[in-house]
Amino acid sequence: MVAEGKRDPKVGSSVAADVMTRAVESKDTIKINLVNNDPYVDFDSYFKERVDVGDLDSVAQGSPELRAAIVVHVIEENIQANTIKREQPGLDPMARFNLAHDRASSTEATMFGAVSRQEFTGKNSIFLRFVDGQQNVKKEFTVNFETPDALTRTPRVVP
User: Fold this and answer.
1) DSSP states of 77-124 as a string?
2) Could you tell me which residues are beta bridge partners of residue 143?
């Protein structure tokens, strides 16, 4: 994908490439621990600094593009949190997370040609809608947690 320091624009996402480049070039530390099928982590946990690769693998079976968007979200959220911490050092950690999460959600939305992400959660599902500036739907995903045991929740993208 990368040859002689240049990205092939026909491969992958320019948004993902931009986020990865900013993360790599940053002087900040981004700590992410990878876990596999952690019952207490659905995709990622900002405060625990975890990403569940089992969840990402499961999501990719239904939508590789959603998996890429989740990874972009996690990295962007950490980039933004570091920036906010420098700019507003006295800000409460939860407020910093909320601000970073909102910014990362907007970046994630651009992966689908959208400007924002709407999220609706149910007992065993998450519905994600990506919309443009006029609230036109660009992409939607329903993710079900189909396993009956809360300790072995596995996300599945519903077609």
Assistant:
1) HHHHHHHHHHH-TTS-HHHHHHHHHHHHHHHHHHTTT-SEEEEEE-SS
2) 126, 157
Which residues fall within 8 angstroms of residue 110, CB to CB, at 6 or more apart?
15
| Dist. CA 71–CA 39, nearest whole Å | 19
Q: How far is CA 6 from the centre of its chain?
A: 25
pLDDT in tens, 51-108: 999 999 999 999 999 999 999 999 999 999 999 999 999 999 999 999 999 999 999 9
Read off the pTM: 0.87
Break the chain into its structural domains and give their ranges.
2-113
Rounded to whole angstroms, how far apart are CA atoms 127 and 137? 13
